[in-house]
Amino acid sequence: xxxxxxxxxRSSAVGIFLATVCLLLGCGGSSxxxxxxxxxxxxxxxxxxxxxxxxxxQVVTLSTVSNGATVYYTTDxxxxxxxxxxxxxxxLVASNLTVNAIASGSGLSASKVASQSFSPxxxxxxxxxSEDFNNAGxxxxxxxxxxxxxxxxNNGGWGNNELETYCGWGSTxxxxxxxxxxAYVGTDGALHVVAEQPVAGVYTSARLKTEGLFxxxxxxxxxxxxxxxxxxxxxxxxxxxNNIATINWPGSGEMDIMERVDAATTPDFNEGxxxxxxxxxxxxxxxxxxxxGETAAGWHTYGMIWKPGSVAYYVDDPTQPYVTxxxxxxxxxxxxxxxxxxxxxxxxxxxxxxxxWPGSPSxxxxxxxxxxxxxxxxxxx
Length: 381
Prior knowledge:
This protein has two helices and 26 strands.
């Protein structure tokens, strides 16, 4: 026989149990007027994969099978959060580090942490990535689509009042002409970026980029380039932060390695600059003067040495940077933020026509004009 006190005791225990379950599961109670809240589904743990680059380096790819989820990661051993670096593209790993990653998104709770350590132990000065624009055939070919994509159109002058329309490989949208591509890898084993004038006052060219396909952070990168020198032409080899997709320019940071305009000068020059929040324009740009008798129209190697808190540029000799920018370079600039330690950047090669810096082409400007690139190499610092 069960006494009343026993029933009351068991009822009390059951009540405590149910209350605890509701607290854990987020039950709503009619007496409190609260509606029940559905449990969030946990995002799938990201996958970390790697493919071999050069010299023991790896190109790392992060992914998640959870639809609508964003992957966040760290490389300093810390636990990632939704405030960590957003994964935008495969990135080069050429130093000893640990990649930690989570996935999260609307309606999803953060995933478990995926982690993978890399210990390549690569010596300083080792070649770890190379784009040599190889072409063993007898005809011009498409730049490697696994590395290069394109900005296309005029985009209102690309913020600089440029005149050209950029054309991608195979584009048939006027004024682009697929039969006369503005970017191709020639039988000479070099990339050709071609500016053309199909009719008077109309210009086409190309702007290639590795955005979404490849990025890197820290190292020495250089390209062997032959630049055109004509009134109104603006060739460039430069980088933008991968996070431009989420925070826009100039917060993403911009590193201009090779940039010049117009016809050759005496002495001839290359401009190396950096841009970011609080330092756009020419506030941090330095002109390199070529030795007597040399111009940018000849073959030269343009390079960048990128380290934490530091960006240096050189022409032809990596042991002699002509300028080094550091976090102290922006210390006196109101509102300036150093963006170059926030994550990887992607590479851009383009040949602009016109714009605020060079001005318009003249009757003496020769078309077609070409920016020719022999290779791009990345080395460990």
